[in-house]
Specification:
Layout lengths: L9 H5 L2 E4 L2 E5 H8 L3 H10 L9 E3 L2 H11 L14 E3 L1 H10 L3 H61 L11
Antiparallel strand pairs: 1-2, 2-4, 3-4
Helix pairs in contact: 2-3, 5-6
């Protein structure tokens, strides 16, 4: 199969990734929209294949998580945004598993695009982690250098004190 051009702008997909339970997830209604299916149909397929979606692939948002998610998207819609049931949140693995239960061409191509975006974001986080580690190493070196400089000044101060305390010696040699 040839590599097709993105159906959806990457920014649109990225804007649908949320951080819930300390992981990146996508919500059922956003995925349904991206896949071009009704949310109800997506949920039906997941429920029919629930064994493919363990808790680390998909979970249902608690009331608090739902409220927090609503605040993340800053919506002023109705109380429950027209949702009868709590939304399902899909981790990267859950989104990947969706491709096995949703078989439309658009769903497959969209899924490939989402997986690439998850990979890009993971790489960006990894790059940032490497930078953070390098920064910590430099910070420790600077702290050590600061301590070394303090030690040098302390030695200089001690030498200066010894010089002041040391009595002047008698000069040896001929006097004029």
């Amino acid at each position: 199969m040839s590599d097709k051009i993105s159906i959806i702008p990457d920014d649109t997909v990225i804007s649908k990734i949320y951080f819930i339970r300390n992981q990146k997830v996508m919500i059922d209604r956003d995925l349904a929209l991206l896949y071009g299916v009704e949310t109800k149909r997506l949920k039906e397929q997941v429920k029919r294949n629930i064994d493919r979606f363990p808790i680390d692939f998909m979970f249902v948002l608690s009331k608090d998580e739902f409220e927090n998610w609503r605040s993340q998207i800053a919506t002023s819609n109705s109380e429950n945004m027209g949702l009868r049931y709590a939304p399902m949140a899909f981790t990267e693995h859950g989104v990947l598993m969706l491709s096995s239960v949703l078989n439309s061409e658009k769903a497959i191509q969209t899924n490939i695009q989402i997986m690439r975006i998850f990979t890009k974001t993971r790489q960006m986080l990894s790059d940032n982690s490497d930078l953070r580690i390098d920064f910590e190493i430099m910070k420790k070196k600077i702290e050590n250098q600061g301590k070394n400089i303090e030690l040098v000044f302390q030695y200089v101060d001690e030498l200066m004190e010894k010089k002041e305390i040391t009595p002047e010696r008698k000069k040896i040699g001929y006097k004029k």
